[in-house]
Amino acid sequence: MTVPMMSAKRWEDMLVELADSLFEFIKSLFDYLILHLDSFL
């Protein structure tokens, strides 16, 4: 499998997508923690 020959733009798009979903995941994780904070304390 030859990966390095992908264009830089394509890599950029992939990174942006990855960062986006990571951000969404962290955001929902924080929302969950804040919602259930009372039960933890």
TrEMBL record:
Superkingdom to which the source organism belongs: Bacteria
Protein name: Uncharacterized protein
Taxonomic source organism: Fischerella thermalis JSC-11
